[in-house]
Amino acid sequence: MAMVPGPVPHLFETFLSGIPAFLFSLRRTDLSLLWIAGAAAAMTGFDPRDLAARPGLFADRFSPVDRERIARICAVAAAGSTAPEDFRFRCADGKTRWIRIVFVPSAGLPGDPLSIAGMAWSIEEARTLRRETHMAQEALLAADAPIFLTDLSGKIRLWNAAAERFFGWGSDRMAGSAIHSLFPIPPEAVEGLLRRVREEGAVSREDRLACKGGEPIHCRLAISLLRDEEGAPEGTVVSVGGMAELRGLETRLQEAINRLRIIEKVNRIIASEWDFRKVQSRIVTELEKLVRFDRFSVALLGDEKDAAIIQVYSRGPTELGSGSRVPLDRSSPGWVL
Question: Is the overall model pTM greater than 0.90, yes or no?
């Protein structure tokens, strides 16, 4: 195991080689490197011998702000150990990674009264996980749908802004309270619902939930089980949808279906009765139900290759007339016959 000469037992460094950590020693007056363990290569990408040969290189890989922080910590560490601090270190590949360092007084090499020992370990994965967790939480808080998180006992841990608008209560009141208070059913029934979520993984149901206005809100609930990184149950995520909004969507869908049925009815009339004079007024009447036309033309075409217009009904000026010939290859989407 390669190591820059220094007071680090070989057995201890062998132990450190199995974890993302290394030991080092600095002169606290100028932060020049006195020695560094060989395990630093795996974390920083630098050969420890190169760092030892250029004593100022190690400190230079920290940002100016972090170097000032290290200098202040080293001054305090001369009197005793300090709490771990997080720093950004620019590795040999040019990428900046997070490391955590704790400083302790050290006799140094050999008995240097100005030396400070430090132990550094990687926290890049932990920082990445924390950043992703923070982004996920921000996404939940900013979501348009009412969403809240609970622990396994039903205590609310997160209450987003949409839930505040929907129920009328802010997160300052709801965070830490029990989900049971939202349901107009006995607490035992709510416990049964949470138990079912733990057993099945998710439950979706329509319910009436309490709100600040006093009148229960008819809504649809989707309750899903949350698990930690090891797959153990950790809590639930609850999303709420207002039934009034769903009813509005259903109404608009029904209106669209009705319009399609009108078009289908017109098509059946045209297909079954080719007396244009008989169906002409019905076609116009049904079309006017769908769209407010300022002008339009309805024509009956013969079935030749270049179809001749046999009859025309129009409102407003039109360039078509009885007997006009319209090549079929001039047809395009949007024509109504």
Answer: no
